[in-house]
Amino acid sequence: MEKTSYTISQLAREYDISTRTIRFYEEKGYLSPSRRGQQRVYTPSDRARIRLILRGKRIGMSLAESMEIIEMYKPASGDEAQLETLLEKVRQRRSALKQQQKDLAATLKALDEVEALCEAAKQH
């Protein structure tokens, strides 16, 4: 059975992030915990948002991009628009990474050539 509430410390431990990070998300308006005295009380929805933000971060999305996609989710109307947007972001990210991979390969090749020239020059 899923818990109905979480403390900031519980979420920080679960996702291996700092409480400061969670408070930052709260300041940005991405999380809306209630209060029990001085303690912040987070819902399963807040927990899911943190998980999705961190997943977006792992694949190279900005916080704003992650939130754009998260905010698109409307259970009543389905999630096709959200999925299409996410697919486009994933494709763009993959394309950028493939280009970076090509650029790195070219740089490594150039470094190998310079290294070989230096080694040859040392032999003379």
Rg measurement, Å: 22 Å
**Biggest β-sheet: strands ordered side by side in the sheet:** 1-2
| Poorly predicted ranges | none
What is the CA-CA span between the terminal residues? 75 Å
Count all strands and give the number: 2
Quickly count the helices. 5
User: Which band does the percent of strand residues land in?
Assistant: under 5%
Coarse structural class: mainly alpha
> Residue share in helices?
55-70%
The string of secondary-structure elements, in order, is HHEEHHH
Q: What would the principal axes of the Cα set say about the shape?
A: elongated
* Mean pLDDT figure: 92
Largest sheet: 2 strands, antiparallel
Structural account:
This protein has 124 residues and is mostly helical. Helices cover 69% and strands 5% of the residues. It contains 5 helices and 2 strands. It has helices at residues 8-15, 19-27, 44-58, 63-72, 80-123, and strands at residues 34-36, 39-41. Helix 1 packs across helix 2 (19-27) and helix 3 (44-58) crosses helix 4. The longest helix has 44 residues, at 80-123. The radius of gyration is 22 Å and the shape is elongated. The mean pLDDT is 92.
Record keyword descriptors for this entry.
single chain, 124 residues, mainly alpha, two-stranded antiparallel sheet, 5 helices, elongated
What is the compact description of this entry?
With 124 residues, the protein is mainly alpha-helical.
Mind sketching the topology for me?
Elements: H1 8-15, H2 19-27, E1 34-36, E2 39-41, H3 44-58, H4 63-72, H5 80-123
Antiparallel strand pairs: 1-2
